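Minutes, structural biology subgroup

Action item carried over from last meeting: produce the structure token record for DegT/DnrJ/EryC1/StrS aminotransferase family protein (Sporomusa acidovorans). EB confirmed the sequence was re-checked against the source entry. Recorded below for completeness.
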Amino acid sequence: MEIGSFIEMEFPRQNEYYSGPGIARLNSGRAGIFHAARVLECSTVFLPFYQCDTVRDFLVRKEIGVRYYSIDEKFNPLIQKIPTDSAIVIANYFGIMGQSRLENLSSRYKNVIIDNSQAFFSKPLSDCISVYSARKFIGVPDGAYVIGTGTVTQLEEYEQDISSDTSLFLLQRIEYGCAGKSYEAKLLNEQRINNSDIKKMSKLTRAILDGTNYDLIKKKRRENFDIACNLFGGINKINPRMYYDEDCIPMVYPLVVENDDLLAKLLANKIYQGHWWSYLLESLPEDSYEYWLSKYIIPVTIDQRYDKAELDFTAKIIYEFLDGIK
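Output recorded by EB:
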């Protein structure tokens, strides 16, 4: 117990979105997928090609076998079955896959890990292990939840993460914006996570998560997603509402425009987007769906910091650019 001395930052309490028994709190989503494989006693994990390579790298580092499967243009896994001693990761892409969709996909396999890194608010499925990443939805330096049968086992083997040493970027973002020294500080935190072993969620992250207004986040993201659908539906090469339902809280609006120069135009106007997982352009055939997505998708920001004005400005830049190349 400590009494007195200086006053620390304070956050509201008892707001944590996932609480109660049966929940493992870890330091990252990739660590959460590894932990899920341990709980399922699986030595091999089937990953979709279209996924961040940090998941693959972490599993390989932890001596978990990795195999891959492709997806089609409707995001269906192109794999019929997996060995009984393996697990399969099914990604809830962009946070726009509804519950019935996930239930349908998961029913086809045994030992299913739902990767909800892009879908923080998606409800856990009873017969699967669900993994959530907090950093994609809330301003925290680390943090993941793993929910499902047996997920609280083996936690005593993991050290407690400490994130305050590399969390300055969260404060600098407020005063300096997202470029320059705040971005450099963020990269230091990313490097810490990349080099880290599986650990329990840091106390700092849990304090922030415990004081977060989740109702506001859900409301704003759904409103902004609807605005984006109206703004970009006429030019988008994919349909983000394909599996969308009233419970979906999207991470981003996935916009696919077949132009190599659009992203540079957005960056030039301080609209900081980026293609996801461009490493796939060097490892997959050009006629694969994953190659096409990696080359052209722009994950338009729709999070709780923004309103219609920011999305209108983004649309203005995009349409001016497209009109200029006709």
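Discussion: The chain has a mean pLDDT of 95.
Next step: EB to file the record with the rest of the batch.
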